[in-house]
Amino acid sequence: MPLHLEVITPERAVYEEDVDMVIAPASEGYVGILPHHAPLFTTLGPGEFRVKRGGVEEVLAVFGGFIDVRGDRVVVLTDAAEHAEEIDSARAHEARERAQQALAAGPVSAADEQRARAALQRALVRLRVSERRGRRR
Ligand code: ATP
Fold first, then answer.
1. Which atom of ligand 1 is nearest to the CA of 123?
2. Whose Cα sits closest to atom 30 in ligand 1?
């Protein structure tokens, strides 16, 4: 009995499939979920969301939100999610540059610094996930 996985953002349903295993970037660290996992509800950090399906590993980038595991149903509600193939790496490079420059210039406020750090983290996740494009087994 596979897991039924749905990944949903405010804009769209990014992924819906029956899958064999999920490795999710929970805020407190990566969690692996197999069928018959105990119920789980937790927050997600920005990170790589891995899906194993029929011997193939797919990777999504996800950015915050929640994962809800109940029975064999896994629902991910996240602010943004992208398949590796959808990531515009030039855009992510630019976002990384902008964030690094803001941090190097000395942000004007703690809130600005936090925003720049979060933007840098998003860009790094996107670059890492987009590098995995085409490396499916
Ligand atoms: P940028 O500064 O380039 O806009 P961001 O980190 O501020 O990046 P988000 O707020 O995380 O962007 O996302 C806004 C929307 O743009 C989301 O729908 C997200 O999926 C999409 N998005 C952001 N960056 C990329 C990218 N490099 N490739 C593809 N989609 C992206």
1. 6
2. 87
Nearest partner of 70 among 28, 41, 43, 49, judged by Cα: 41
3-84: CATH number = 2.60.15.10
As a whole number of angstroms, the distance between CA 130 and CA 55 comes to 20
Domain ranges of the chain: 3-84, 88-136
- The model's pLDDT over 10-24, given as tens digits with 9 standing for 90+, comes to 999 999 999 999 999
**What lines the ligand 1 site, CB under 6 Å?**
11, 63, 80, 82, 86-88, 91-92, 95, 119, 122, 126
CA distances from 28 to 6, 47, 134 (A): 21, 12, 29
| Domain range 88-136, CATH class | mainly alpha
For residue 135, what pLDDT is reported? 57
pTM above 0.85, yes or no: yes
